[in-house]
Batch of 2 targets.
Target 1
Amino acid sequence: MPARINPSILAADFANFERELGRIQTADLVHVDVMDNHFVPNLTFGPATVERLQALSGIPLDIHLMIDDPDHWAPGYAELGAFSVTFHAEAARDAVSLARRLREIGSRAGIALKPGTAVEPFLELLPEFDQVLVMTVEPGFGGQSFIESVMPKLVALRAARGDLDLWLQVDGGITLDTIGIAAEAGADTFVAGSSVFSGDPEANIAALRAAAADHPH
Ligand code: DX5
Ligand code: ZN
């Protein structure tokens, strides 16, 4: 399976999402960062905007919820038809029940770990999830530097995954210089904001995909 490249529209022009979606037609999924100014010190958009993105995008949406109380809010994003909904482990009251609910509604269910959150407690719960998002920056802002010290989490997840259809996603600071490091550690799904939207997005997507393929696990 070639690397999945999910451009983050956090780096797009917020006043022109329709045009920006047109620039990333070769993406695997469109990564949508929902921030509430509580879980992270930044604010983006909520369900009304995501509903429009869902209607406009021919490419499935990969929703990343950086919000408090995902137990309450996340199912609403699945109900909008999002292909994948990922919530933060640090914010969820009952991650397993929430993931089951998201799957029941029809989305893939993802769990995200901030750089300081250990992966070990989740290794025995992997069958409950369709994706684990290993944050490679502190969540909240685009354009930050890749934190290489979290790579052992991917190695552990890759070893524990077995035959599960579990995607291992990295998000933050993914560029042509860093994507190979994450691919070698075991990531198969790569979020990239600044490095996709600066210059020619489709050329950037192709280059990122090729760079990941050059560094197999
Ligand atoms: C950060 C977001 C990322 C962000 C990545 O909290 O979750 O998705 O857009 O941006 P880059 O690729 O610029 O680090
Ligand atoms: Zn994200």
Target 2
Amino acid sequence: MARIVGGLTTSHIPAIGNAVPREQELRNDPYWKEFFAAYPPAREWVQSVKPDVAVLFYNDHGLNFFLNAMPTFAIGAAPEYKNADEGWGIPTVPSFKGDPKLSWHIINSVTRENFDLTTCQEMLVDHGFSVPMELFWPNYSYGNMRTVPVQINTVQHPLPSPARCFALGQAIGRAIESYPEDLNVMLIGTGGLSHQLDGERAGFINKKFDLLCMDKIVNEPEALTRYSIHELVREAGAQGAEFILWLAMRGALSHKVRKIHSSYHVAISNTATGLLVLENAA
Ligand code: DHB
Ligand code: FE
């Protein structure tokens, strides 16, 4: 049977995608030093658990889905996912392998549990997906590892509630664990932490709330599902609502998890960056 080995969370700012190819050189750069220093322990752990597939909970920022057609929840069921440059000057990265069989198993399983996902047999992925893959598999070493993208709307209101995202994650967790193939599955939740890129509160960061989220998500995630989506926007900023992606990922893990590594760093671009490595209970 498939086994969920653990969960990773990381922020996914486009500037990181731009910096990744120069990581060695930026290791001593005052702006990037602390950010990049956080990742080697996470990479070592990822290598040690030997994932075959990564299921990524991320948000599209207007690349594959735009305001004309915005699914609340969408899932990829394609053999391959290409990263398309969003016009930000991000280097083109090798494409990501899909796992249509596992995707359809998840789709069938969660539909039986009344989660109706938009199924995408073709899908482009943006920095919300590619930056975490580049950070955890340096030098684009994700190679033949398969991926399943799960996309959650954080762009056009109404956004799904933290509780709904957590429940979707739980259903996806049950789906993965009922997959008959012998696979090690890694979960990844991307985005956050507090940030607001536009409007009167542009540049807003809430360190106290971020640290509360990073603490509670480990062994008390239900406490965070009590926030409404508007309370989350108030506390974390308009784009900080991306924390629902971390919660969806956490829903798919076991009730108790072990924290292997974490980091919190303010700021890259206008964003508080957070990293978490959680080992799933056997
Ligand atoms: C930026 C973009 C993002 O999608 C995000 O989550 C954080 C920051 C940015 O453009 O700076
Ligand atoms: Fe984002």
